[in-house]
Amino acid sequence: MHTKNISTAVIKRLPRYYRYLGELLAHDVVRISSKELSEKMGVTASQIRQDLNNFGGFGQQGYGYQVEYLYTEIGKILGLDKKNKLIILGAGNLGMALTNSTGLQKRGFEIIGIFDVNPQVVGKKVRDIEIYHVDTLESFLKEHEVDMAALTVPKAVAPALAADVVKWGVKAIWNFAPTDLHLPSDVVQENVHLTESLMRLSYKKKAAEEEKK
Amino acid sequence: MHTKNISTAVIKRLPRYYRYLGELLAHDVVRISSKELSEKMGVTASQIRQDLNNFGGFGQQGYGYQVEYLYTEIGKILGLDKKNKLIILGAGNLGMALTNSTGLQKRGFEIIGIFDVNPQVVGKKVRDIEIYHVDTLESFLKEHEVDMAALTVPKAVAPALAADVVKWGVKAIWNFAPTDLHLPSDVVQENVHLTESLMRLSYKKKAAEEEKK
Questions:
Q1: What pLDDT score does A211 carry?
Q2: Which end of chain B, N or C, is less packed with Cβ atoms under 10 Å?
Q3: How many angstroms separate the CA of residue B59 from the nearest CA in chain A?
């Protein structure tokens, strides 16, 4: 099926379905009704049916969804049916957190290089992955196929570094720098703005307090 | 004004407005038109007017928005007009990344304690903030007012630890564990699911590749 036909809102929810289906699969669950899945996930059964019916004719009345089939199909939509090769730009705490994330490894994301400018870390290895100097990035990208680059460097250097890796062929940027990158239209990006996330929590807390008044 | 009257979609965008306005303020910009702001932020001027008109009668025709006023008002809505006290649960790479984040400090989030079980880090200090043993959490929360807890511990222990801090009075959880927490209705949460974010990037990349075909 063509991913184009699925709405952005559904796409946003797909990784969460994928996580729940993966957990069911790990517990050897073969099939699940929309009602059971609805109780687990805290969304309505009708929402689940609407979302998952995008993926064809499963979810038969009285039978439920085939967990493995659905998991595999959603995995394909998400591009997880192949290994995705990732580089980490910035060997600071955040870069190390990503490097050590078991979640990423479980989903088939393979980190093949880490890049930094700090002579104290360049040359070291983390989980057998080498930390290279940023100066070697261009030649590394010529020699290796890289699907995505995680950008965990300071804001001041992030836009220029992103422009460099894009120039050298990377088509997907996972941006952690608290700035908006202006990239060519054929390059995709996903932003994780941690401070903005915490501000949303702060807003929710304040709103909840006001509601009680 | 009452935050209740603002739509969730606008709220989601507020931290980004706040970031841009903060940058303008840092560059001594006194006022800005919706057109200029629109070009900077890459959203339509009409969207900006719609969003910002929620905050009352600024943005006069031919005058533009008063940057400092708007920045201050949005800060109030986001609960940033006071110091927010934060604890970090988990002194791993992610916990350290948050502890060292200058963005958090700049927005008035003050980290007052870090908690872990690892004897190798308990007792140490990071930026003058002590790392305590998790066993001391209950007494710490009795003695200190804590606005929010960042949960950066492994998935297997996250739900129980979240339940504990909530029991001991914390009303806002910033959850980084790749699991959904089931918290009482008066407790707010904000989730940062990193692997899901990367899956969305993977989806976008695959969709962009298919479009080219």
A1: 81
A2: C
A3: 23
Among B94, B190, B204, beta carbon nearest to A197: B190
Indicate the CATH number for domain A3-77: 1.10.10.10
| 3-state SS, one letter per residue, for A63-126 | CEEEHHHHHHHHHHHCCCCCCEEEEEECCCHHHHHHHCCHHHHHCCEEEEEEEECCCCCCCCEE
Select the residue of B192, B199, B210 nearest A3 (Cβ to Cβ). Answer: B210
CA-to-CA distance for A99 and A111, rounded, in angstroms?
A: 7
The predicted complex's ipTM stands at: 0.92
User: CA–CA separation, B113 vs A70, rounded Å?
Assistant: 43
Domain boundaries, chain A: 3-77, 84-196
* Residue of chain A nearest B101, judged by CA positions: A195
The per-residue pLDDT for range A104-142, each reduced to its tens digit, is: 998 999 999 999 999 999 999 999 999 999 999 999 999
| pLDDT reported for residue A131 | 97
Mean of the per-residue pLDDT values of chain B = 90
Chain B residues near residue A202 by CB distance under 8 angstroms: 78-80, 84, 109, 147-148, 172
Task: Give B36-67 pLDDT, tens digit per residue.
Answer: 888 888 889 888 888 887 766 455 666 788 89
**For residue range A55-76, what is the model confidence (pLDDT) as tens digits?**
664 556 667 888 998 899 899 9
Query: Would you tell me how many other CB atoms lie within 10 Å of the CB of residue A112?
Result: 16
Cβ contact (<8 Å) for A201 and B207?
no
Q: Cβ contact (<8 Å) for A202 and B79? A: yes
Query: Could you tell me the CA-to-CA distances from A43 to A19, A37, A47, B163, B171 in Å, in that order?
Result: 15, 8, 7, 22, 23
Instruction: Tell me if A3-77 shares its fold with A84-196.
Output: no
